[in-house]
């Protein structure tokens, strides 16, 4: 009973803290352009189409991502209505699961509650993890299933008497990862596990009946939806999901500026803020752990990190969220590293890194002040800025006080407050922030002030949001611009003639566009059209284009 209570207390603490952090305030800002509304619009159309099997977008089936994320979004919409909090509900809940899974894996690997708990806190309070916990993407769902896949596998590896159960649960989680993001759900765990077992000279671990049962469980989870899609949509599904969204992304860059050797390494460090220096320290001293006799867990974490990094680094389409599954093992390495320093006699490194972080926090208020002065158009309440500055000054002083009093554990846990403090204070300073990230206000203005009975013309980045918030037909105008990486079943105009032909057919056209497109519309319309600027909301220009009488 004592052992159960010892484990229950940290689990409850982590669950409550992460629940408060990930769930509170998720309705303050409306769903943002252009990715959050992409997923939410798909789930919204699934509600409208009364389907649980086929994702829809702009009234047509779309196969950019498999079904699981849309299941969660639709379930939330059905239960709590179509709103921003509902859309962000399950990413937050899964983020809580991820924190608890890291704690469980840390217990199994480190056999040290202190290391496991600290690792979970590091993950919970790191910048990218919080960001994806509070936004609508597939990456949190996918990464949590990857965490759970590895957790159950390692549970099976270190508990021979529970091997079958561990492998079965690992296979189920792997299957759900495939239903979330495709073949990567198998490729990442398979590569990591094979390399790990090869290094440990224990590949025979998988040569057993339990592996066959696990493979059957994997097929049971994966097969029904994929078979159904192939049967219903055939080549349309295969061409879009397999060829375009998986194979094409491996050989062609969606964002050419990201296709560099340093993009992911730099993101690994910045995404772990404020723990980045500790992560670097853990990676630097990794060789010490590998020299130890009992190093299986560290080898396992390295194989996990390398499998994610190698797979995505080799692909030409690089997006920051893609490498998110390697952040949990980075948190575990950092947690083990910090805990070893805390209990060691020589804490010089720990004091030095903590001091550097505290001085970095002291620099934040200065940067905030000058940034606020430079970007006053985004800020309606300077009192909020002053509150944020005072909060960071106080936090830095608290950390330095704990360091001075040699209470290093208190200093470490104070560092975890940096990102949550920033997120909690942000709404106080940016009353106008939503205008620059969401098309909700622009859409509401159109619905209230315009009689729209035809297609709204939008810049590409606004089109999904306008569709989500208006439920009207939409088209895209991007003069000499790039189209979507995956085709959307809506008109897409890139030349003057195409736009002019569209405007002639419409007669009166309402537009939500970037500033640069306003002059393009005036030029294209010429003397035959009247172009009226109705309103500017954030960076969205609401335009009315009327065809003049002949």
Radius of gyration: 26 Å
Helix content: 55-70%
Could you give the count of β-strands?
8
Tell me what portion of residues adopts beta-strand conformation.
5-15%
Alpha-carbon distance between the two ends: 87 Å
Uncertain regions: pLDDT < 50 for 5+ in a row? none
Tell me the overall shape: globular
Which class of secondary structure composition applies to the elements? alpha/beta
How would you portray this structure in words?
With 550 residues, this protein is α/β, with parallel strands linked by helices. The protein has 3 domains: 339 residues, no CATH class; 87 residues; 109 residues. The protein is built from 24 helices and 8 strands. Strand 3, helix 22 and strand 4 form a beta-alpha-beta unit. Helix 7 runs antiparallel to helix 8. The radius of gyration is 26 Å and the shape is globular. The mean pLDDT is 88.
């Amino acid at each position: 009973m004592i052992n159960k209570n010892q484990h229950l207390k940290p689990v409850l603490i982590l669950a409550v803290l992460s629940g408060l952090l990930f769930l509170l305030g998720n309705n303050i800002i409306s769903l943002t352009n252009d990715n959050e509304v992409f997923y939410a619009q798909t789930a919204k159309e699934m509600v409208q189409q009364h389907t649980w099997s086929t994702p829809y977008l702009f009234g047509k089936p779309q196969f950019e991502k498999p079904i699981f994320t849309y299941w969660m979004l639709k379930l939330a919409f059905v239960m709590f209505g179509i709103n921003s909090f509902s859309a962000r509900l399950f990413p937050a809940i899964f983020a809580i699961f991820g924190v608890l899974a890291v704690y469980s894996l840390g217990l199994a690997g480190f056999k040290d509650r202190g290391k496991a708990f600290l690792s979970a806190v590091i993950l919970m309070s790191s910048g990218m993890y919080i960001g994806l916990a509070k936004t609508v993407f597939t990456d949190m769902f996918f990464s949590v299933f990857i965490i759970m896949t590895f957790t159950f596998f390692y549970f099976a590896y270190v508990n021979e008497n529970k091997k079958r159960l561990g492998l079965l649960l690992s296979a189920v989680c792997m299957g759900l990862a495939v239903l979330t993001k495709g073949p990567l759900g198998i490729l990442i765990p398979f590569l990591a596990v094979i390399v790990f077992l090869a290094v440990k000279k224990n590949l025979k671990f998988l040569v057993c009946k339990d592996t066959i049962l696990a493979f059957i469980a994997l097929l049971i989870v994966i097969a029904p939806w994929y078979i159904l899609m192939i049967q219903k949509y055939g080549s349309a599904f295969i061409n879009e999901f397999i060829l375009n969204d998986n194979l094409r992304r491996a050989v062609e860059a969606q964002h050419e500026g990201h296709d560099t050797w340093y993009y992911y390494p730099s993101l690994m460090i910045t995404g772990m803020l404020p723990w980045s220096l500790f992560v670097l320290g853990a990676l630097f001293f990794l060789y010490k752990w590998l020299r130890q006799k009992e190093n299986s867990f560290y080898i396992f974490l390295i194989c996990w990190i390398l499998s994610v990094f190698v797979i995505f680094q080799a692909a030409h389409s690089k997006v920051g969220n893609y490498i998110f599954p390697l952040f949990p093992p980075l948190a575990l390495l950092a947690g083990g590293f910090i805990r070893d320093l805390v209990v060691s006699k020589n804490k010089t490194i720990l004091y030095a890194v903590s001091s550097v972080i505290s001085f970095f926090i002291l620099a934040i208020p200065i940067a905030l002040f000058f940034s606020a002065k430079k970007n006053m158009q985004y800020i309606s309440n300077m009192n909020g800025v002053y509150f944020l500055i005072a909060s960071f000054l106080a936090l830095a002083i608290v950390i330095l006080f704990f360091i001075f009093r040699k209470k290093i554990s208190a200093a470490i846990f104070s560092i975890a407050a940096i990102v949550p403090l920033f997120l909690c204070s942000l709404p106080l300073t940016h009353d106008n922030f939503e205008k620059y990230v969401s098309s909700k206000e622009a859409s509401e203005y159109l619905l209230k002030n315009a009689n729209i009975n035809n297609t709204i013309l939008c810049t590409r980045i606004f089109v999904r949001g306008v569709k989500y918030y208006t439920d009207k037909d939409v088209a895209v105008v991007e003069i000499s611009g790039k189209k979507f990486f995956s085709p959307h079943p809506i008109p897409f105009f890139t030349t003057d003639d195409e736009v002019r032909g569209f405007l002639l057919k419409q007669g009166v056209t309402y537009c939500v566009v970037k500033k640069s497109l306003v002059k393009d519309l005036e030029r294209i319309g010429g003397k035959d059209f009247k172009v009226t600027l109705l309103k500017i909301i954030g960076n969205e220009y609401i335009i009315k284009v009327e065809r003049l009488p002949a």
